[in-house]
Amino acid sequence: MRADETTESTSAGSGEHAEDIDVLVLGGAGVDTIVYVPELPLPYADSYMIDRGIRPRAGQTGDFVALGLAALGLRTHHLDFLGEDPEGDLVRALHRDKGIALTVIPQPAGTKRAVNLVGPDGRRLSLYDNSRGRPADRFPEDTLRTLAAASRHAHVSITHPCADALPVLREAGAGISTDLHNWDGENPYHEAFAYEADVVFVSATALTDPRATMRRIAERGRAEVVVATAGAEGAYLLADGELTHVPAAAPPGPVVDSNGAGDAFASAFLFGRLGGEPPRRCAEYGALAGAYACTVPATESAALSRDALLARAATGR
Questions:
Q1: Are β-strands 225-229 and 199-203 bridged in parallel, bridged antiparallel, or unpaired?
Q2: Where would I find the Carbohydrate kinase PfkB domain in this sequence (predicted)?
Q3: Within a domain: residue 300?
Q4: Contact at 8 Å (CB) between 5 and 147?
Q5: Could you tell me the CATH number of the domain that includes residue 55?
Q6: Whole-angstrom distance, CA of residue 267 vs CA of residue 66
Q7: Domain for residue 78, yes or no?
Q8: How far apart, in whole angstroms, are the C-alpha atoms of residue 317 and residue 313?
C-alpha cells in the first residue's frame, strides 16, 4: 500500500481472495446538501425561507449504488478519493454504519459535493461542484488491480478519474457496468464508459431518441444490455438485440424525492444479473427498487432489502 493511500474496511480488507467481492463500486463518493424549495424551476428572488432546513447528507451516485447492493446482500467494496474534511467524514461514517467496505485515496482538493434543490413533487436539480478533483488524479494501479482481481463485477461511476481505470478492470476479467445519467448522446466524455461496459444504464431525460442511442451504444461498444430509465414512464431495455418497454412499478408510499432512484434501479438490476436472472427480470427488480427510492426523503439514506425486493417481485408490487 502506498503512503498516500488509506484503507477503511468494515466487511472486507486488503486480504481479499479471488471473488471475495461481488461488486467493486468505483467512484461517485461525496456529499449532497439538500434544500427543499417551493417549486422547480425556482423563480428569481432575493431570498427564500427554507422551513425544512438545509442539510448535508453523505451519498452521491457511487455511495447509493454501494448502499443498494449491500442492502441486497451482495459483498460490496467502494473505492474512491475523499478529502480530510467534514464531508469526507460523513462519507466514511455512512460506509461504516452500513457495513460497506471502503478504500480511500486521499484527495487534497477535498471531497466531492453538490447542492440538490428538491421540489414538492420530488424532482431534483443538482448543482455539482466539479472543483473537487485534479486532472492528474489516478487510482493507484496496484490497489485497483488487487480489488478488481477479487471482484466478480465492477460498477463504474462517470466521475473522474474512473475512465482511466476501465482498461485495468477489463484486463482483470470482471464484468463492468456504468450509469451515464443524463447523457445527451453526444458529449464525448461519456463515450469511454458507454462503449466499454457490459451493462449500460442511462437516463432518457436528455436523449432526443432514446431507442437510437441505445442501439448505437450496443453496436459501437461491448454492451450486452442497455437500459434507458424514464421515470414514471418506466424503462426501455435492449437485450439480445430486442428492445422492449418495462413499466414503472407503483411506489409503496408517497413520492417525496427522486434522488437516488436511478442508483437503486442499477443496484437491483445488478443483483438480478449476478444471480443469473434474465434481463427482463433484472429490469423489473430495478423498477421496484427505483420506486421504493422515490419514497425515501432526500435527507435520508435507505435502500430496499433483499427480502423486501423478492417479496414485492413475487406479488408484482
A1: parallel
A2: 65-301
A3: yes
A4: no
A5: 3.40.1190.20
A6: 8
A7: yes
A8: 6
Nearest by Cα to 126 from 40, 46, 248:
40
Distances (CA, A) of 150 to 18, 22, 164, 224: 4, 8, 19, 23
Could you state, in chain order, the average pLDDT of each consecutive group of 10 residues for the chain (317 residues)?
A: 44 49 97 92 93 90 97 97 97 96 96 92 88 92 96 97 96 96 95 97 94 96 97 94 95 85 96 97 97 87 91 85
pLDDT of residue 93: 97
Residue 1 lies in a domain: no
In a domain, 90, yes or no: yes
Q: Which domain, by its residues, includes 209?
A: 6-315
Q: Are 60 and 303 in contact (CB under 8 A)?
A: no
Looking at residue 19, its pLDDT comes to: 61
* Interior/surface letters 222-242, b for 16+ CB within 10 angstroms, e for the rest: ebbbbbbbbbeebbbbbbeee
Number of domains making up the chain:
1
Residue-level pLDDT at 297: 83
Grid coordinates of 84? 480530510
- Region of residue 260 (phi > 0: left; psi between -120 and 50: alpha; otherwise: beta): left
